[in-house]
């Protein structure tokens, strides 16, 4: 911490009574229950907006929709926002959206759209503010046919000013479909963290979770995009991104799933922009697609793209990227896994570091008696440094691709990789 | 932008290009494992490119495929490794590894490996003091009493160096092992080429091709290794060590080894040094029966232009087994000089050997040695040894032919040949009849358009047959010696 910041903090403590120490506590709760067919629609916008010094806001926003449906639909739309300017303010938000459909639902539909926005210190003079957000979105459907869950979660955090903190502690989207036939889950989560200014800190934990239990011919389509951007100087951004798309336990008498499809896309970007020095972006990115315990003729399509880009001087972008596809059951499964990794250091930079650990793992089975499975893996790894004036840069990439077919009587594995390390100097 | 940053940028801009020290490090690891029979296909391209000054690139590329198969299995691996450097004082390290393995009671298992390794350094005149170090290893293994297995390996290694005082080091290794029961085969082809242009550059290539079959009937090894070194420009150095080894070992019968090694060095330009200091071809059958070895080694060094030095050490070794094997060994050695003040040395050794206590084996050995001089003040030296060593055993047949030609058509040039053929079938006191047949043709031609030409051809030719303690000796020796001078 710079000496200026220490002095300012000390002064703030000493003369705290001089600041406006307002406090707002808000609980917003919304609940709807239906027992037949029909429609429930819930729209909600929750904002915590603070301008001034030394203020505190706490918000609890809760939304609940329950349907014992025979062909019903639930639509939830939530916007949760926190905006802070000034000095020494503190904002906490808990934002929950929950939708549930039970029993003999047919053609049930749940649609959830969630936007979580946090803006901290959007002018140059904002200093020492803290914002914490917990954002949850969950949709459950149990025991129906032809059901659909569509979920969109957008998490946007922006920090500017000096020594501010944003912690989007949990951005969590969960969709569960249980005991069903031909169900569909479509889930999209986009998280954007941007830092400008000096000595700011941002942390985002982004979880997307889509799961079918005991289903046949179900499909899970999941897309997660995670972007961490850095401007300014001496800032730190940390992102933990986890995407899980799973299909467990079949519906038939043997407990074997049949013909389920999981399609998962994860894009992770850690980027230092055109101006800004001594910044750090760290991302841990996990993409998991599991179809285990007795699946037949299942398909897993997984794509993970990881970009770590740095500009300017003394910036560091670190990424740990894991893509797992696990079909640890019976036979006739298909796994298609693609991972693209780019560590890129652009021109007009100096002493930049891009460090990537990329791991792709596909496993189809561990059964002794199973049928033929197919694994196709493709990986493109590029570490590139471009500089017009004598770059002193480092790009590190460690890339692993693994495919395992434990006890197949007929193995079919195809692996393709392109690895390129390139330095273009002046 | 903060003040510190502006200052840092100004300092950076004022510092010369020696500061350019960027680093790119890549580890690329591929693994595929199958617990049963089936197919694994792996293909990869690994590229390292540097254009600038003082940069460092390190790549480790590993590909591993394993099948624990119970039936028909197939692994196909295809890899291209590429390193390209321009600029000043850059370094590239590449480790490229391909490994394929099939275990268990595989039937008709197939491993196909294709590897292309390319390194280009300083392909413009301004590139200086760059280093590329490449290690390329390809391994294929099939184990455990397999039937009808086959391994096909193709390894191509290309190194090009231009510019000034650049360095390329390449270790290229292809290894195939089949431990089977019947009808197994290895087809291995390795081609390595080094090409230098520019000034004061250095290239080093170590090329190894190794094929091994154990405990098999009706096994086949087909091994081809071609090693080529080209030099242009001035004051460049190139070193190549080339080794081809085909072993059909332990209790084999009715098997075949066909081995071809070609070593070629060519020099143009001035004051270049080409050293193929170890061209080895070895084909072995330890205790086999009724098997065949066909081995051909061709060694050629050609020199054009001025004041170049070429050195070749060529060794062909074929070893027969226990009973009724046929070994056919051919070695052709040639030096060609057509320029000014070039100097070439060839040491050529063909050696055919029989396993102890072998019976009813047939050894046929032919060595051809040629020294051709066309320019001015060139020197060619050849030491040519052909040896057959059938240490013990009975009823073996040895046929040995050596042809030596020194041909001069220049001015003030020298060709010197020392030719030695030696056949030695046995030393056991109790053995049966062995047969030795030796033929040697020695020719020295000087045919000049200059008068006086001052050319010199020297040939020392020795022919030796030795049957130590046979109860019934059968030796036939035939020799033709011809010296001809035709003036202008």
What does this structure look like?
The complex is a heterodimer of chains A (426) and B (488). With 426 residues, chain A is mainly beta. Chain A has one domain. Chain A is 3% helix and 69% strand. In chain A, the strands form three sheets. In chain A, strands 1-3-5-7-9-11-13-16-19-21-23 form an eleven-stranded parallel β-sheet, with no helix packed on it. In chain A, strands 2-4-6-8-10-12-15-18-20-22-24 form an eleven-stranded parallel β-sheet, with no helix packed on it. Chain A is flat. The two termini of chain A are 36 Å apart. About 4% of the residues of chain A have low confidence. Chain B is mainly beta. Chain B has one domain. Helices cover 2% and strands 72% of the residues of chain B. In chain B, the strands form three sheets. A 13-stranded parallel β-sheet of chain B has the order 1-3-5-7-9-11-13-15-17-19-22-25-27, with no helix packed on it. In chain B, strands 2-4-6-8-10-12-14-16-18-21-24-26-28 form a 13-stranded parallel β-sheet, with no helix packed on it. The longest helix of chain B is centred in the N-terminal third of the chain and has 12 residues. The chains are: A mainly beta (426), B mainly beta (488). Chains A and B meet through strand 22, strand 23 and strand 24 of A and helix 1, strand 1, strand 2 and strand 3 of B.
Overview features:
heterodimer, A: 426 residues, 24 strands, B: 488 residues, mainly beta, 1 helix, 28 strands, 2% helix, disordered N terminus
